[in-house]
Amino acid sequence: DRSFLIEAGAGSGKTAVMAGRIALMLAAGMAPATIAAVTFTELAASELLIRIRNFVDELTADRIPAELLVALPCGLSEEYRRNLAAASATIDEITCTTIHGFCQRLIKPYPVEADIDPGAVVMDRDQADIAFAEIIERWLRNELAGDAGGLLSEMVMQDPGETLDLIRTILRHLRGRRTLIVDAPDALQPLVEAVRQTADGFASFVRTAGVDEPETAEIAARFLEMVEAIETISPAEETAALVRLLLERPHPDLCTAAGGFRAYKKKGKWCEAAKRAGLAKADGDRLNTAADSHYTACCEAWTALSQVTAARVLAELVRLVRPVMDRFREYKRAAALLDFDDLIFAARGLLRDHEPVRRALAARFAHVLVDEFQDTDPLQNEIFWRLCGDPRPGGNSDDWTTFQIRPGALFLVGDPKQAIYRFRGADVAAYIQARGAFLTQAPDSVLPISTNFRSCEPILRYVNERFETLLSAENGQPGFTALDAFHPQRNEGLCVAVLDIAVADADGKASAERQRDGEAEAVADMCARLIGSEAILDRKTGSRRACRPGDIA
Fold first, then answer.
1. In sequence order, what DSSP letters do the residues of 24-71 get, joined into one string?
2. d(CA 327, CA 333)
3. Which terminus of the chain faces fewer neighbouring Cβ atoms within 10 Å, N or C?
4. What angle, rounded to 10 degrees, do the helices at 42-60 and 14-27 form?
5. Rounded to a whole number, what is the distance in angstroms from the first to the last CA of the chain?
6. Geometric angle at alpha carbon 326, from 324 and 332, rounded to 5°
7. 425-445, pLDDT tens digit by residue?
């Protein structure tokens, strides 16, 4: 009868926690059909359901699983036995699925309100990707055939491969984030003028410095050349001019291999120039500081112009490709198809825009449990909040973040330290927001579980020491919780070893590829030395035996 956020550390038995909670919900008389468990993969969903069935089977046979002893120290009451016996016959009515499968169950009974075809079929990821790619290709051919002098054709003429990759990247983002808006930045002309002013200022400083420092004079001349190149571009910002400005690069003499501006390091040159002119070393330091300031101003002005030019081109390209999204939606609607993103957006819209439906679904799925919550995105969070919460009296029903979660309606399990799916839209900030909402409702509604059942104590001690600072809140991370060992330390020798990877070139450096190869060779060598050695304690027999390949992860 309470809602919780469980912060479950690595190896802490999250599946057992979720399965155990559901088993005890069934024992308390909650109907299986009112329970929904949302997992990250279909495999995890099936494993969870198997675990629930095993717990229920054990309990109905009057055996208390080890994981549930702490919750049932005195065994089952008669009421619990009756409820479990009744639930075991309908246990398949528990909804155990992924977020996309769950959204499909939310919208399927309400096709009119969700604005979907009642007979719509969900495409798998590959089907949707192929259909989307074909629509992009057709649109590109049509657009380029009638876009003479337009932004797209100008960019394709300059670099066809990179331009087409950019278009596909933009469309991929628009497909996953339908509400994405890219605003056009401010006018470019003031930034062009700022580049001219900083370059003139640098050149003027060099002329009036009173000493001759040729290398800095050469740098100032390069900035003037860059200004002359961009000032030939029409201030009217026509399409071709915009593309030319976008493709302008700093002079090669000023750039690193990665394309950024080089650091200004001419202090020794200025001191030598000052000495030749009969000036003190302090004068050389002063001139170097002033030159460094001018150089930095020139670099910043050029960078600002480049960024705003790129942002203006991006905003125009986003506007240009929007019809592709319209064509994709029309294709899916005509063919009665939905993709995974449609399921998420339709479920959110259904819960947001149809209050009677929201209340009906909240009664239907009265208890929602979510695994791997750190890998959800803000849109998915909104679905859970609208389904499991209610607007506060006098509150704004449009702002889902203010919803009051109902007691026992929502059970979240996650670990912000394991949030790795940012590339798929997951946002650990959404997790932090959810944690704050739970803490606001009840300070003891966020529970950490940190006992690790996977590794022995020396390994966990090593991990805790290495990551405590790196994952602390002071470093912009979600915060560190030490892992506690369930398995005691056994006197079995070394638990953590550092492998020496010697792959450096003559200059002391090595490419990432060579480092990876070196690491792979070192790990393979270590495994080869372990296999066949009598170093393994067989937990089943209690005797020692030779290490096998299957003992190594």
1. HHHHTT--GGGEEEEESSHHHHHHHHHHHHHHHHHHHTT---GGGTTT
2. 10
3. C
4. 50
5. 40
6. 105
7. 667 777 888 888 888 888 899
User: Whose CA is closest to 304, among 191, 199, 184?
Assistant: 191
For residue 350, which amino acid is it?
Answer: L
- Averaged pLDDT for residues 494-518: 79
What integer pLDDT is reported at residue 386 of this predicted model? 96
Q: Which two tokens stand for residue 478?
A: 């979600």
Q: Return the H-helix or E-strand segment holding 369.
A: strand 367-370
**Which tokens is 323 given?**
């019809």
State the Cα–Cα distance between residues 408 and 366, nearest whole angstrom. Answer: 8
Q: Which two tokens stand for residue 419?
A: 């949030």
The Cα-based distances of 244 to 143, 238, 240 in angstroms read 21, 10, 6
Express the helix, strand and coil content of the chain in percent, nearest 5 each.
60, 10, 30
Q: Given pLDDT bands bounded at 50, 70 and 90, which one contains residue 199?
A: very high
Whether residue 373 has pLDDT greater than 70: yes
Give pLDDT, residue 493.
63
Residues of 254-285 as b/e, b for ≥16 C-beta within 10 angstroms?
Answer: beeeeeebeebebeebbbebbeeeebeeebbe
In the chain, how long is the greatest CA-to-CA distance? 102
Judged against a pLDDT cut of 70, whether residue 421 lies above it is answered with: no
- Per-residue CA distances from 25 to 19, 60, 362, 409, 422 (Å): 10, 14, 17, 12, 33
Distance CA 247, CA 252 (A): 14
Question: Where is pLDDT greater, at 366 or 481?
Answer: 366
- Give one DSSP letter per residue of 130-149, joined into a string: HHHHHHHHHHHHHHHHT-TT
Which whole number is the average pLDDT over 177-191?
Answer: 79
The CA angle 344-347-350, to the nearest 5 degrees, is 150
β-pair type (121-122, 337-338): parallel
Q: What is the mean pLDDT of residues 137-161?
A: 83
Question: Mean pLDDT highest for which of 166-180, 228-242, 364-378?
Answer: 364-378
Nearest to 481 by CA among 466, 491, 489, 471: 471
**147-151 long-range contacts, Cβ below 8 Å, gap at least 24?**
149/239, 149/240, 150/239, 151/239, 151/242, 151/243, 151/313, 151/316, 151/317, 151/320
Say what the pLDDT of residue 377 is: 83
On whether the CB atoms of residues 281 and 164 are closer than 8 A, the answer is: no
Of 211, 351, 192, nearest to 271 by C-alpha is 211
pLDDT bucket at 503, cuts 50 / 70 / 90: confident
Burial class (CB in 10 A: 0-12, 13-18, 19+), 70: exposed
